[in-house]
């Protein structure tokens, strides 16, 4: 494992906190990250994550944005206050890219859209920022980019449908139908 840590440039503190309410996903990710040289601990809720951070502040964290008992941004904020040098990755789904950008502004190092695999997570955690990441294998479709843009404006308008429709120059009912559907692939 020490050779893996050196080759991955994890550093002297391999502690990693994984926070996600999908128990199967977080368990699988923990095993994969352990094989890469990290020392993962998992939490399934905001409450559990905050409790763990009070006991130990990890050098790395991967935090789901939406958890059953609250918002992952609360965990990001607490970890950033507790350990300023922690590398924090926010996982997001449901078209919440705008909120993920807000997480980066709050102190997260980066964000990844779900589903993300262990290679994506490792790359994001260890990225130095000096080089551009390689282009994605499966970039978002034009429909997905449009949907993400609508979601971003919707979040910026504090989820006010009428205001979002006005700013996007579209009919309010059309926007409501778009918001009611799942995002395209």
Automatic annotation (TrEMBL):
Instruction: Kindly give the InterPro entries that the UniProt entry links to this protein.
Output: ActR_PrrA_rreg, CheY-like_superfamily, Sig_transdc_resp-reg_receiver, WalR-like
Q: Which SUPFAM superfamilies match?
A: CheY-like
Q: Which UniProt keywords apply?
A: DNA-binding, Phosphoprotein, Transcription, Transcription regulation, Two-component regulatory system
- Please tell me whether the keyword Translocase is annotated for this protein: no
Is Iron-sulfur found in the keyword set? Answer: no
Q: Which Gene3D superfamilies match?
A: 3.40.50.2300, Homeodomain-like (1.10.10.60)
Per UniProt, residues of the Response regulatory domain are: 15-129
Q: CDD domains, from UniProt?
A: REC_RegA-like
Per the record, residues carrying 4-aspartylphosphate are 64
This chain belongs to the protein called ActR/PrrA/RegA family redox response regulator transcription factor
């Amino acid at each position: 494992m020490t050779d893996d840590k050196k080759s991955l440039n994890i550093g002297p503190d391999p502690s990693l906190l994984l926070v996600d309410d999908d128990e199967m996903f977080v368990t699988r990710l923990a095993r994969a990250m352990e094989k890469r040289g990290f020392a993962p601990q998992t939490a399934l809720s905001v409450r559990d994550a905050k409790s763990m951070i009070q006991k130990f502040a990890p050098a790395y964290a991967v935090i789901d944005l939406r958890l059953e008992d609250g918002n992952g941004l609360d965990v990001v904020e607490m970890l950033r206050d507790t350990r300023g040098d922690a590398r924090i990755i926010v996982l997001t789904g449901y078209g919440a890219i705008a909120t993920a950008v807000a997480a980066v502004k709050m102190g997260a190092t980066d964000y990844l859209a779900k589903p993300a695999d262990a290679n994506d997570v490792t790359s994001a955690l260890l990225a130095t920022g000096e080089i551009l990441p390689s282009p994605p294998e499966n970039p978002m479709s034009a429909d997905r980019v449009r949907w993400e843009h609508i979601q971003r404006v919707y979040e910026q308008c504090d989820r006010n449908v009428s205001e979002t429709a006005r700013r996007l120059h579209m009919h309010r009912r059309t926007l409501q139908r778009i918001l009611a559907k799942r995002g395209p692939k």
